Amino acid sequence: MSRPDPFFREAGAGPGVVCLHSNASHSGQWRELMELLSPTCHVLAPDGYDAGKSPAWPADQPLRLDDEVALLAPVLARAGSPLVLVGHSYGAAVALIAALRHPGRVRALALYEPTLFSLLEQEAPAPNEADGIRHAVAAAGEALDRCDTDSAAGHFIDHWMGPGSWAATPAPRKPAMAESVRQVRRWGHTLFNEATTLADFSALDVPVLYMVGGRSPASAGGVARLLCATLPQVERLTFDDLGHMGPITHAPVVNAAIARFLTGL
């Protein structure tokens, strides 16, 4: 299978920073961060598979995080070395795997709640802290089987942002988000079945800013509990009033923390 090229946004000059978006989103979520960092950094923000302007996953087999990392190859090359990876949710999970696959090339990571639910599954089988997102994915999948993309998006968005969040989403934003949630079962399979172990991350000896929201679901907190006890150079930063979607709902606050971290490297 030939590897397609991703779409990516680009701004600024200087040390490379690559920003990876969350599920049901695209590279545009990082516009404000790119503007903030571009005076001193070369910032690139790609779209992952089936997101924004990047291609669809072109194979019948399940998608792995390693496949997402492979898609990023031209973006990482353009960013130069060593570079910093910034990631949110699914994008933060991709960033962690990318850092492991490219030792010596990644000098630091700024992560907001990576969704590596596989680590919770490896620690203990269900029931565990991943049950909430497990049930949301199942409910969204059942809605998709009924061709009800609106309800599917509601199950997924309300899990991460709280009950009623989908209903309150502005109507112009809903179609693209609902369309992206068609991939929810694939996202779930990818994140629950990642083979990388917690012990593997103990070798990731680079500075990591690990950001969490005080109002986030248990699954995000459980992954944070495990990774923050394992990563050798981790700084945990909790935003008490934010949830899992903090980089989008409160971008200035999160972006300022990322910029401070990069300044201190």
CATH homologous superfamily (4th level) name of the largest domain: Alpha/Beta hydrolase fold, catalytic domain
Overall mean pLDDT: 96
**Total E-strand runs:** 7
Helix/strand order: EEHEHHEHEHHHHHHEHEHH
Give the tags.
265 residues, alpha/beta, Rossmann fold, 2 domains, globular
Describe the structure.
The protein has 265 residues and is of the alpha/beta class. The chain has 2 domains: 8-124 and 195-263, 3-Layer(aba) Sandwich (Rossmann fold), CATH 3.40.50; 131-187, no CATH class. Helix content is 44%, strand content 15%. The protein is built from 13 helices and 7 strands. The protein has helices at 31-37, 65-71, 73-79, 90-101, 117-123, 131-145, 149-161, 165-168, 174-180, 184-192, 218-228, 246-249, 251-263; strands at residues 8-11, 16-20, 42-46, 83-88, 106-112, 208-213, 234-239. It has a 7-stranded mixed sheet, sandwiched between helices. Strand 4 (83-88), helix 4 and strand 5 (106-112) form a beta-alpha-beta unit. Helix 2 crosses helix 4 (90-101) and helix 6 runs antiparallel to helix 7 (149-161). The chain is globular, with a radius of gyration of 17 Å. It starts with 7 loop residues before the first strand and ends with a helix. The model has no long low-confidence stretch (mean pLDDT 96).
Give a summary of the structure in a few sentences.
The protein has helices at residues 31-37, 65-71, 73-79, 90-101, 117-123, 131-145, 149-161, 165-168, 174-180, 184-192, 218-228, 246-249, 251-263, and strands at 8-11, 16-20, 42-46, 83-88, 106-112, 208-213, 234-239. With 265 residues, the chain is α/β, with parallel strands linked by helices.
